[in-house]
Aldehyde dehydrogenase (Zea mays), 420 residues
Amino acid sequence: MRIDCCFWPVFCFCFRFCFCFPLQVPGGLLTFPSAASVAAEPLGVVLVISAWNYPFLLAIDPVVGAFAAGNAVALKPSEVAPATSLLLADLLPRYVDPSCVRVVQGGIAETTALLELQWDKIFYTGNSRVGRIVMSYAAKHLTPVVLELGGKCPVVVDSDVNLHVAAKRIAAGKWGCNSGQACVSPDYVVTTKSFAPKLLESLKRVLFEFYGEEPLRSPDLSRVVNSNHFNRLMALMDDYSVSGNVAFGGQIDERRLRIAPTLLLDVPLDSAMMKEEIFGPLLPIITVDKIGESFAVINSMPKPLAAYLFSNDGQLKQQFERTVSAGGIMFNDTGIHLTNPNLPFGGVGESGMGAYHGAFSFDAFSHRKAVLDRSFLGEARARYPPYTPAKLAILRGVLNGSPLATVQAAAGCTGGASAD
């Protein structure tokens, strides 16, 4: 049977929804005879606070998961993308039952007012600073949260790769993804001192191929979202400790909020650029003596949302997977792991908590309820007082999880007689 790729995520979700809920599980020795299952139930009314960098996708994706799980949703789109916010406020009430969804527009005041209310779950996409604020409000009501944050996503490049392909995939993940304004964009590259010149030259060729001699005029290069973020990025680049490290690019057009793809070599690890998420078109390249030293560089920083390794060395891949803690990892490409609906997408530590996408969105907005259905048969007298030594021996055997131990314990206390 052929299923078009665009319908595959829907097929996966429907398959799991139709055939895996409720999930039947073994009843267990202590409850025999019984039937056990795990039922998914809606949490109730949930709040979704979305981000500006992909304003439609990051609003609708969790909302669809919340609806599928049976919840009602209050959606707060980002005020930094006002046109999309207005569109969602106009379209959603037209096509979705208003009792199921409310779209609340506005800025900090409106978001704060929403956070003051009690919700059954809060789903927030954004940065870690606001994530802490969301979590503090949620704690007042013991509200569970999903925090989809970001972080400094590293790219480690070994010397045994197809260099041109690797450079294209790094460039596509960095500048093709909203000019670096994406939570899974490569934030910095780590490679060896001996290999860095080759990688740098390959990236330069690819950037020329992608954006031409005048990248600020390229229709394929996204602008920075607003003047505040433009000034933030300029402050990172103008920092005295990194301003002399620009190896390529650096051109700006402040009026059009454009910054050309910029490569920086050997940026100090204690610089502001390496202490915060860049979220823009600047890409530092850090060099180490041996590729294995890159893991220590990554682990010296908060856990990222994504970590990437370009290598053909199977042993190095295994070491990377074991050593680097991240929301997700990907080998020999960047960014596109989140397109697989069978993989959870979410962070760890500073990069967030909880996961969604595909059937995991259903899980994120559901409560897994334990259901046990016992028969009136199978009464065990050892369960009830008075607790004789024989009964206690049987109970100890049962709690130790060994039917044989139960029989032996009972036989040892009773000489083979049934416990009363």
